[in-house]
Design goal:
The structure is a single chain. The chain has 552 residues and is an alpha/beta fold. The chain has helices at residues 5-11, 42-48, 86-100, 113-118, 126-129, 151-164, 175-190, 219-240, 256-265, 273-278, 283-299, 313-316, 318-330, 335-340, 345-355, 358-365, 369-374, 392-409, 426-429, 435-453, 507-521, 537-540, 545-550; strands at residues 28-35, 56-62, 73-78, 105-109, 121-123, 168-173, 196-201, 244-249, 269-270, 305-310, 419-424, 459-464, 474-479, 484-489, 492-497. 43% of the residues lie in helices and 15% in strands. A nine-stranded mixed β-sheet has the order 1-2-13-12-7-6-3-4-5, sandwiched between helices. It has a four-stranded parallel β-sheet with strand order 9-10-8-11, sandwiched between helices. A two-stranded antiparallel sheet has the order 14-15. α3 (86-100) links the parallel β3 (73-78) and β4 (105-109). The two termini are 45 Å apart. 48% of the residues are buried.
Length: 552
Amino acid sequence: MKISPLQLARYQYEPKLPGMLRNGISEICVKDGSATESVADQEKIKALFPNTYGKNEITFQKGCNTSAEKKQVVGVILSGGQAPGGHNVICGLYDALKATNADNVLYGFKGGPSGLLDDDYIVFDDAYINQYRNTGGFDIIGSGRTKLETEEQFAIVAENCKKHGITALVIIGGDDSNTNAAVLAEYCAAHNTGVQVIGCPKTIDGDLKNEDIECSFGFDTATKTYSEIIGNIQRDANSAKKYWHFIKVMGRSASHVALECALQTQPNICLVGEEVAAKKMSLAQIADYIADSVAARAAKGWNFGVAIIPEGIVEFVPEFSVLISEINELLAGSKADAFNALPTWEDKYAFIENGLTKESMAVFAILPVNIQQQLFLERDPHGNVQVSLIESEKLFSALVKDNLAARKAKGAYNGKFNALHHFLGYEGRCAFPSNFDADYCYSLGYNAFMLIQYGYTGYLSKVSNLSKPAEEWVAGGMPITKMMNIERRHGADKPVIRKALVELDGAPFRFFEENRAQWAVDTAYVYPGAIQYFGPSEVCDTTTRTLALEKA
């Protein structure tokens, strides 16, 4: 297989570890922190996790290793969507495991959680692992979105672990995957299976974070990759001077990716869903806000610009959320079959008009026809609108076009408006990890094995102080239950890890808020360029603008 010179060079990169993990396995000890409680719904969470709730946070430090010496057989899975650095979590886990005892074994279960259920696996060795060091993607064992949440599934997992002598599992995933890890850990503890479960925080969306988890892995690389492309588009816009580019970026539940990309590139417009929700902004108000920038720049002779749109923005618009709810109700059960049987869009439109409230129909009527039709595409498994299929970048450019036409009719606007559209999603999920993500992920995996070696279960591998050089990073663990609360899911109360939204009083948003009025009118673009892997530390090892501002 032919490989690129960069890939060959990345194989040889040696990730940096936190100082306390560089001492050698025999010189790492545990420092106990305080007992924990869940972020909310403490009594309910405690009742659901009697064997794993309320444990202490811990950190590793230099000292005599007091863990029991025994052969370790560990299993690992990748769960959910891809994120840069996942391979390095497995490499760090493997290296720590082998450094402790050459007879230790690491099983990789293929295709995500389903691999645990189907007993589909590979046993890692040096030759196989070395092909994936510091590379992007999840192709080392693949991933999947099967949820581990039933007693029957847990029993199968426990039986498969018993068959192979596996005493610990590492689940690398996002908030849902780590929720499943916590529930599996509780099951294993309650049934005395002898299997420990450790989680690792992954998601490019950045919504798995809190006071303990400063950053989920993959966020750094993905946002730098998107920002490079946005910078390229901005340079093109500033060269051609005739297009407004509407760029949708990943992030359905939170706007962290959009905000970080804005901090890196300084576009004319960046919508932040959390602000839209807090201000109860309507579609018309958002369109007016963008049109103000278009008009102000046109007055300077600049008929071009860039707007960043979060993937899930429409769900933050109150009137649109109500519309979505009504559509879900309108097509519930057999009513969907009746709707789909109608022969023309005109017939379907009449059906919709009959079924929606006057207020929601008013919102629906202003949408472009292609967006109206996207709201009635194939439902998700729960019968709901698949909001991620809505081309919100095209929605807002169409609304802005109508807004500007109205202004022109009143003599209040005399510019030109030509829109181009982009969606940046898969481009960032499997990029070569930045040095930060390569180091961070390797540390998370190495640290996960230390948690296993010391007998912890239901813990998340935690590396903090990430705005500092890697030597100053702090490694340890926290009970997953600390991040949990109760939410209503599909008609039932479920324990879940609380998603982290953009904090409107946080330093990153405040910095954006202080500067966006100037960016909206001026051409203040920043062109980040490609991720750098070699050179001065301030070029190669920097973390995100978000984290730098939070820890300033």
